[in-house]
Write a structure and sequence with these properties.
heterotrimer; A mainly alpha (about 625); B alpha/beta (about 400); C alpha/beta (about 260); B: about 400 residues; alpha/beta; Rossmann fold; seven-stranded mixed beta sheet; six-stranded mixed beta sheet; 13 helices; 15 strands; globular; disordered N terminus; C: about 260 residues; four-stranded antiparallel beta sheet; 9 helices; about 35% helix
């Protein structure tokens, strides 16, 4: 049994963790609350803050004053970077469909990784700690870092500062008004652009502060962008999007959970955080202190009418299909392997688009179903020695069953909360695959999932993949044109109206979720056989992000979007990976460029151009 | 048949010069082609020095006339840390680039994926860094060789030192995934076998890259251990050491730590390096054997930087491959090549080594010693080199551990 | 011939939020073909009342009978199935579909054909949809996207949607809100005509008193959750309580 002193030290440790979480999460929640931008680059801003802070503070005298000056200067630098990011990029895509800004921030994440590496090198940079940063205080009999105590004190101070800023200043009142009703603030003649830029600068400065304050206990390193952003998202969502008090409360919850969790369940700390997030979202669909999202989007906004494919597009599709059928006769084995991956990516993206576009349910964890499908095939092969047809059948079935079980919680939520609950599930699935080594093989994966001999050659496997993915994708399209798909789209357009004409909303959405899961599962099963092995990377956040990028790049609003997006993204990635070491920089820049040129995605943009050129 | 890869190659020639490290280091006439894959963008701290290492070895071997009169060419690809990409790139290297063998890998899963691929396509794969025991044991197969001493070897070397300590109450801290779990399992099994009086009283399993170092340090301290076994590395290790230093976790306790003596992990600790830890690693500054001095001098001259562990792995990998190729007498048919590598002997900056026929593991060893502070930097002192062969389990045991023999 | 008994009968309806009574002991009935207006100042309980009737809220007490059968506390879907159509204060239509497809959706749901996965939705009930669009004057715009309609047209589309399953009762929340005054009369006259032709009872809330007194057969006045008056236009105009509430003669409601 831990003694009272130990509990006190653990409490303090939890408080220090909570403070560190809050500095980053507060910036994220402020940015989201006002601009509605889901800023995936927030972790990158924290990383930049750590690196800038390291460079500045290392050059200043090693005194508390030097550290403070360095921290303030870093916040200033980050504020400028944040403002530049808002002016140069996000401002141009505010009017794009929901979550499209996400794509732009992903571009920034990718670019920031290569830029930081180019500027600061590959080695972790740890700040040299002068004696005052190494000092400790005695708590009971135990030593507790004095700097962590300082961080704990800073937590309420920053919270109070932000609270006063938002409640006691004219700027703050305008920002809050903009949070409640953007149109109203615009109508009052306030320059929203300035407001949004300043909010972004503030959020980025807070991210920078989080990065600087991590330096004495840790280091500036290239992995911190992603670890930070997932933690910050968990905090913001648990607290309630846009709620400052919620972020503070959730920081405390997660901080204590980490500090005490490792005593109770040392092997499951990662999953524990996501389990708690899932539980909170199931019980409180808008987070602890979040408010329900504002009124339903007024009719007539943003949603383009979906019409059946024009004849020309149908012919184009048919032509492409014939070309794809003949591809093995003029493509080399490597090109065929890429083509096979593209086809699988197409089905994967189409399945996400199915629930995200017409279904209105964006997912940050779609790789979960892909991965469950892949692992199901692998288990079928390794444990049951199942033949390939059975292995390929098990994949969509297993994914569908899991999606149905889990989906019943998901469909109660909406918007970013829904997306984050899918992320929570995917992260738990990933943690199981990565950490439960005895069952899943951990990151070593499961090997030897090679296809039956008839399909072992690249051509045969390509044709099999072409058949199954084309059938799967076409079937999803068919469903979207059928009454079920219309009803799904109807719920997205207007949930009130759908309910008022007797649509059973939740069963409908759950079914759509399950179908999307099954299709992703089939893609995963095919992938497992194509690669001969499964790994936790199939379920990773990165893979979910790949799917999102494909759908958003192609365009959410068009049914061909995910197909175009999957082909474009996979092709771009493969080519860049093999021609340049700076592939992230180039890919990120390409994504940002596409966002600016085609705010409705590639397929959407091409469709618009085609319509414009067509004689009236 | 039109090869798409032809156009890709053209793109490559244009693209690489400006942007990337040379993907194709071509020798003059009919070179022996080595397809190399590693996580260049995902794990740059290891793989960039590693690339320097193999480039240096390539240059030296080709300057000396190559292998049996043929030069070596390395075609290098970046798997971005994803085993699935590694498998796809391996397919390209084998089928389009017609490489004679595959090499590389840092992450264990990439190594295993490449090994599985090599068995499927019946092509030789020489793994450099991947540490997992599964590569040569549980999942071992005849087409795969591995250079680095495995998790087992590293743990076994540390156990020799740990068993000499008076400490009886041990705690462990390791990242929660296959590497961390194996490293703890081997260490505790082997130590208990040597010292039945030892007990392990607590274990912490922080998620990789997510350590809550203050809480971990407190949890370990509260078990009142006499000694600590650490497997964390990289940013997790830096956090752990800083919190442990401030909180006095390491004072009056023995610490045994895996890989911490490697410059990649030791250098970021800087003046906070806790002295007296028993570690495996690479004392690059104080290793003065003729082989290492020659390597270090050449490396520093070429890259204006000191060698890291990755540099040694990259350098030795090409040396090992050259030795294996040399024994094949120009017959690079897979089966012949695979047999030629069994027993191939080669020189590394650490000394002489060979590929064991029994499990295709090389006998390259590592250094074990203590950490110390010198001019505000962490260094290894009192080190000795432990040959990998000396800590391997008996052959009968290896046969059991390697069911898919060959 | 009108069927015996009212289409909708509400008895002793009550709902409180945090101790504040939003609706208290409200009792009334609507007959077939009748247009009944529910009016009252802001916060009188009109919306709560409506939301209980259409199933969005569950009452604390009281009963709602539709054609003599209780529908108290049923979900919106079930209430719709029993023949209650609804329009919203802010129109709710499917913006990504054409006008005809909007109505086809309602028809598909009515005929329980939503859970179909193969035949295209556009091939279902197209003629029936046009037959519903004609009376509201929207047949010319059947191919247009609902998202680009003028507001008055959206209101008429909503009416067609609400009529798609041949309801017995139509609930209209502020039917003319947001419309130009010149259009309001037209919409209500259309409603009146359709209700009479199809024997539909109509219950509506409305802020525009010209509309209320011009079209309603009977008027209910709510204030602070209580029914304070009920009667024809003339009776309501003359009612002292109503005058007090609306004109603010100094007396608080119920304070006699």
């Amino acid at each position: 049994m831990p003694g009272a002193d130990q509990i006190l030290v653990a409490l303090l440790t939890g408080l220090a963790d909570a403070a560190a979480l809050f500095f980053v999460a507060s910036g994220l929640t402020v940015i989201f609350g006002v601009t509605r931008v889901v800023n995936f680059a927030h972790g990158s801003l924290t990383m930049l803050g750590a690196y800038c802070g390291w460079s500045l503070i290392s050059r200043l005298p090693p005194t508390p004053l030097g550290f403070t000056l360095g921290a303030l200067a870093t916040m200033l630098v980050l504020a400028v970077i944040g403002a530049m990011m808002e002016i140069g990029l996000l401002r141009r895509v505010y009017r794009a469909p929901e979550l499209f800004q996400l794509l732009a921030t992903f571009g920034v994440v990718l670019m920031a990784e290569d830029i930081v590496q180019a500027l600061w090198g590959v080695e972790d940079l740890a700040l040299r700690r002068p004696p005052w940063l190494r000092a400790f205080v005695l708590v009971g009999g135990a030593r507790f870092p004095r700097f962590d105590l300082f961080v704990i004190v800073l937590f309420p101070l920053i919270f109070l500062f932000l609270w006063l800023l938002f409640t006691r200043t004219r700027w703050g009142r305008l920002v809050r008004a903009a949070t409640e009703d953007r149109d109203m603030v615009a109508a009052l003649g306030v320059d929203q652009r300035l407001l949004f830029t300043s909010v972004f600068a503030l959020g980025a400065a807070l991210a920078g502060l989080g990065g600087v304050l991590a330096l004495p206990d840790a280091s500036a390193n290239l992995g911190m962008d992603l670890t930070t952003v997932t933690d910050a998202f968990v905090v913001v969502v648990v607290g309630g999007l846009g709620s400052l008090s919620g972020a503070a409360l959730a920081s405390l919850l997660i901080g204590f959970l980490q500090a005490f969790g490792i005593m109770l369940v040392p092997k499951a700390t990662l999953a524990l955080v996501f389990v708690v997030m899932a539980v909170v979202l199931v019980l409180r669909p808008n987070g602890l202190l979040g408010r329900p999202p504002g009124r339903e989007r007024a009719s007539g906004e943003t949603q383009a009418v979906v019409r059946p494919a024009p004849r020309a597009l149908g012919l184009l599709g048919l032509g492409t299909l014939i070309l794809a059928l003949l591809a093995p006769f003029f493509l080399g084995p490597y090109a065929l392997a890429i083509a096979t991956e593209m086809l699988i990516a197409m089905l994967f993206a189409a399945s996400l688009h199915f629930m995200m576009g017409p279904g209105g349910m964006a997912s940050f964890g779609h790789a979960a179903w892909f991965g469950i499908g892949a692992y199901a095939s692998a288990f079928a092969v390794r444990l049951l020695a199942a033949p390939m047809p059975l292995g390929l059948l098990v994949a969509p079935v297993a994914a569908a069953v899991m999606a149905a079980l889990f989906g019943s919680f998901v469909v109660r939520l909406s918007g970013v909360y829904l997306a984050m609950l899918t992320l929570a599930f995917a992260e738990i699935a990933w943690a199981i695959a990565f950490q439960w080594v005895n069952v899943t093989g951990g990151d070593n994966g499961i090997l030897g999932v090679w296809p039956a001999s008839a399909f072992a050659g690249p051509r045969a496997f390509y044709w099999l993949t072409l058949l199954l993915t084309t059938l799967g994708t076409l079937w999803l399209r068919r469903i979207l044109a059928a009454p079920f798909g219309y009803a799904l789209r109807g719920v997205r357009d207007s949930r009130r109206r759908a309910e008022a004409i007797g649509v059973a909303v939740m069963p409908l959405q759950l079914t759509a979720f399950t179908l999307a899961g099954a299709a992703a599962g089939l893609a995963g099963g095919l992938y497992a056989y194509g690669k001969g092995s499964v790994f936790p990377t199939y379920i990773s956040l990165g893979h979910s992000v790949d799917a999102l990028l494909m759908v958003l790049l192609g365009g959410v609003g068009t049914i061909s979007g995910p197909i175009v997006g999957a082909l474009a993204y996979t092709g771009l990635y493969d080519v860049l990976l093999s021609v340049t070491g700076l592939w992230r920089l180039v890919l990120g820049a390409a994504i940002i460029l596409l966002v600016l040129v085609f705010p409705e995605g590639i397929a959407g943009g091409v469709f618009r151009l085609w319509q414009r050129m067509r004689p009236a | 048949m039109i090869e798409i890869s032809l156009s890709r190659r053209a793109l490559l020639a244009a693209g690489t010069a400006a942007l990337a490290a040379p993907r194709l280091a071509r020798a003059d006439a009919a070179p022996i082609r080595i397809g190399e894959i590693n996580s260049y963008s995902a794990v740059p701290a290891f793989t960039l020095p590693y690339r320097n290492g193999w480039q240096l070895a390539l240059e030296q071997i080709n300057a000396a006339g190559g292998v049996n009169g043929r030069k070596l060419a390395v075609i290098s690809d970046n798997d971005a840390g994803k085993p699935q990409d590694a498998v796809r790139l391996a397919g390209e290297l084998v089928e389009s680039d017609r490489v004679d063998l595959l090499a590389g890998g840092f992450l264990s899963n990439v190594g295993l994926a490449l090994s599985d691929f090599s068995a499927q396509k019946r092509v030789l794969y020489v793994a450099g860094e991947p540490l997992t025991d599964a590569l040569v044991w549980q999942n071992g197969q005849k087409f795969c060789y591995r250079l680095r001493p495995s998790t087992f070897v590293q743990a076994a070397i540390l156990v020799e030192e740990a068993a000499k300590l008076p400490a009886k109450r041990w705690v462990t801290v390791a990242p929660n995934y296959e590497y961390g779990q194996s490293a703890v399992k081997w260490f505790s099994d082997l130590l208990k076998a040597k010292r039945p009086d030892v007990e392990f009283v607590a274990a912490q399993w922080p998620a990789l890259g997510h350590i809550d170092a203050g809480a971990v340090a407190e949890a370990l301290a509260s078990a009142k251990p006499e000694a600590i076994y650490n497997v964390t590395f990289g940013p997790d290790l830096t956090n752990f050491v800083r919190q442990g230093n401030t909180r006095g976790l390491f004072e009056g306790r023995s610490v045994v730590s895996l890989l911490t003596g490697e410059p990649e992990y030791l250098d970021p600790l800087g003046d906070e390096t806790p002295p007296g830890w028993i570690v495996t690693g690479y004392p690059w500054a104080s290793l003065e054997t003729p082989a290492h001095v020659a390597f270090r001098t050449a490396y520093q001259k070429k890259f204006n930087d000191y060698p890291r562990m990755g540099s040694v792995v990259g350098y030795s990998l090409i040396q090992a491959i050259a030795a294996g190729l040399g024994r094949a007498n120009g017959d690079f048919a897979s089966d012949k090549l695979v047999s030629a590598f069994a027993g191939a002997e080669f020189e590394t900056p650490f000394g002489h080594a060979l590929f064991r026929a029994i499990d295709h593991q090389s006998t390259l060893g590592t250094f074990v010693g203590k950490t110390a502070l010198k001019d505000g930097k962490g260094v290894m002192v009192d080190w000795r080199y432990v040959d990998g062969a000396s800590v391997m389990p008996p052959d009968a045991e290896v046969h059991k551990l390697r069911p898919g023999a060959g | 011939m009108k069927p015996p008994g009212p289409v909708l009968a509400v008895a002793g309806l009550a709902k409180s939020f945090g101790g504040v009574a939003a609706v208290a002991e409200v009792t009334f009935a609507v007959a077939s073909g009748e247009m009944l207006a529910l009016i009252g100042p802001n916060g009188a309980g009109k919306s709560t009342c409506f939301n209980i009737l259409s199933g969005q809220l569950r009452p604390d007490r009281g009963e709602v009978l539709l054609g003599g059968e209780t529908i108290t506390g049923l979900p919106p879907r079930a209430i719709w199935r029993r023949g209650v159509g609804r329009t919203f204060q802010i129109t709710a239509t499917f913006a990504s579909m054409t006008v005809r497809e909007n109505v086809q959706m309602a028809l598909l749901s009515h005929h329980r054909r939503l859970w179909r996965f193969l035949r295209p939705a556009r091939s279902h009930f197209a003629d029936e949809a046009d037959a519903l669009l004609a009376p509201v004057g929207m047949e010319d715009q059947a191919e247009r996207c609902a998202g680009e309609l003028a507001y008055g047209d959206l209101k008429r589309l909503e009416l067609a949607l609400a009529l798609a399953h041949a309801p017995r009762l139509l609930l209209m929340d502020e039917p003319t809100a947001g419309m130009a005054p010149s259009e309001r009369g037209g919409l209500m006259a259309l409603t009146r005509r359709l209700a009479a032709e199809r024997d539909i009872a109509v219950l509506f809330t409305e802020h525009d008193m010209d509309v209320v007194f011009g079209v309603a057969d009977r008027i209910l006045v709510l204030d602070r959750g209580r029914l304070i008056a009920e009667g024809s236009g003339a009776e309501i105009r003359a009612d002292a309580n109503v005058r007090a509430v609306y004109l603010g003669s100094g007396a608080t409601s119920g304070g006699h």
